[in-house]
Amino acid sequence: MEDKEKVLLFQQWKRFVDSEITVVVLGTTHRAVDIAKSNSDLIGRIAQIDVGRWSLSDLEKICVKGFEYLGLTPNKKAFDRICAEAVGLPIIVQQICLHSFNRNSIFSIDSAKKTKVKILDDQNINNSFSDVANEKYSQFETYYKTLIRGPREKSRKYRTYELVIACFTVDPITFSLTRQQIDERLLKLELPQSEKPPAASLNSTLGALKKFRNKREFQLLEWMPSEDTLYIVEPSFLFYVRWRTYKTGSTPVQLDLFEKLLRDIGESLDVAGSRLSKLRIME
Asked: Which of 67, 76, 100, 173 has its CA 20 to 30 A from that of 120?
């Protein structure tokens, strides 16, 4: 809702509260302060109940129960990774475990000992993450590509939208990033100097995000200027962003951007080497 509409609505709600009529509002966590912010008279008259996300310990019970039912020894290290990357969603835990089992990466039968031997290593888990992201959450692909292009794609010097989303692929996992944290994570990406967007470009991108997403009609990211914080509104989109791209057998490559940067660096080195060879021949 627009701020003016919220102010009007919450002003009217005060009359209900004064008449001892209870109003229950369901909303996303980062919008919890909107009621009090829109009408300061409601401060002290409202109470917030944070439902929260599934805890890692509760998510791990899904893995443990499934493995025990299959007669397999639980692998706590593997479970910890699965539950952490599931962004608080039990369905993602279930999908990753099922996918790992179906592709025979969990165990093999030792014919000599007649026992089941688990094979749930990091490589298998990463493959399952990537496959689930692209098979179960492929509907985000169009939104993701639209987001990283941003408005006025051809006129922009920097790929700021893509870089901002890339910040969510940096560990530790988080659903929100302050403006300062975005700067810190951009440094961790170790970008070439020519690819680093200046502060003005980042501020412009974050400021234009609301208008851009409303025009494209999707609610996945939200920039809150009053909190100086960028939120991922849909948890499963965070999982998709982190695992939509994975290069088997090497360091995870979470976004197409990184592959492009590596190619550009390689091409630059090739050009420099070619020029150096020509200079030596001329000498």
From this structure: 173
Place of tokens 């020509």: 278
Q: What is the pTM of this model?
A: 0.74
The CA–CA distances, whole Å, from 57 to 6, 64, 89, 182 equal 38, 10, 13, 29
- CA distances from residue 147 to 70, 124, 153, 157, 271 in whole angstroms, order as listed: 42, 30, 10, 16, 32
Task: Give residue-wise pLDDT tens across range 124-143.
Answer: 899 999 999 999 999 999 99
Radius of gyration of the chain (CA): 24
Q: What is d(CA 270, CA 127) in angstroms, rounded to the nearest whole number? A: 33
Return the half-sphere exposure (C-beta side, CA atoms, 13 A cut-off) of residue 70: 19
